[in-house]
Amino acid sequence: MNTELPSELLTELRKAKRVAVLTGAGISAESKIPTFRDAMTGLWASFSPEDLATPEAFARNPRMVWDWYAFRREMCAKALPNPGHLALAELETRFEEFTLTTQNVDGLHQRAGSRRVLELHGSITRVKCADTGRLLEGEIPACDNPPPRHPQTGGLLRPDVVWFGEALPERALLESARAALSCDVYFTIGTSALVYPAAALPIEALKAGATVVEINPTETPFSNTASYSLRGKAGEVLPALLAALQG
Ligand code: BJW
């Protein structure tokens, strides 16, 4: 890894009692799950968010939206957690309080062993009734003419993810905000810092006095505001950080 870890940051982390983390699609990039906004490889380079990630898109063409998420669900199921996810699961055990908030819907933090994960944008592993929001219990059905209907409510099934214009899950957002306002060190990892309200969390942490660390190979609108902006891949920087703390 070329990115140098500032010794002042390591000192602060050794003293820290409360650590909070926000992750985005970049942390799963090394698990071969495409990000959204990377120019060549991001999902939004080939697909339009207006056609696929809004309630209006689902109302217009539920079959297309269902198929797109079914394709991505399979990709996520085949993917494996990478050293970045694993390092975060290990870091969770090292601080008195550790809050991991993710914008990702892929379930890889949980599969890496993170015990408490706040999912701000839902999970692709679950589906719910589009009318009532009631979750489907059991396996997601495959069918010839998607989307299938919820067996109890009769409404069309849709992924349990948060689309543009939809409210985020209240408890996950409240707990994420509480952690941002009360932590000693806040990490924002692998996110373009463009989508709100998630993008406001590191800003709130900084205002409340936390040291805020960005980990991203590319500059973001938040880079100049962060206390430390570490230019590197999550799967390299996080294991190096963990090793430095152990050493
Ligand atoms: C690496 C790496 C490596 C690469 N290591 N890094 C305030 C201002 C302006 C607009 C708004 C605002 N408040 C709300 C809005 C509107 C909107 C919004 O933010 N729009 C902006 C885009 C302009 N927000 C909403 O609509 C939200 N809802 C809301 O606010 O509701 C209000 C409400 C209240 C009450 C009632 C009703 C409504 C909802 C947002 C939902 C976002 N949904 C999506 C899709 C989820 C489902 C799915 O997966 O399909 O969430 S969009 C997409 O963007 C997805 C992501 O979670 C989210 C963030 O993307 P992320 O993770 O940052 O990915 P990328 O691709 O952008 O960035 C990846 C980064 O990784 C890059 O920087 C790379 O460099 C880096 N990287 N390799 C580390 N190896």
| Shape field | elongated
CATH fold-level name of the largest domain: Rossmann fold
How helix-rich are the residues, as a percent range? 25-40%
Helices and strands: which structural class?
A: alpha/beta
Distance between the termini: 17 Å
Rg from alpha-carbon coordinates: 18 Å
H-E string: HEHHHHHEHEEEHEHEEH
Q: Tally of extended strands?
A: 8
What amount of the residues lies in strands?
A: 15-25%
- Tally of individual domains: 2
Briefly, what CATH class of the largest domain? Alpha Beta
Largest sheet: 6 strands, parallel
Bound molecules: ligand BJW
Provide the CATH superfamily of the largest domain. Answer: TPP-binding domain
Low-confidence stretches: none
CATH architecture of the largest domain: 3-Layer(aba) Sandwich
Number of helices: 10
Strand order in the largest sheet: 3-2-1-6-7-8
Overall mean pLDDT stands at: 96
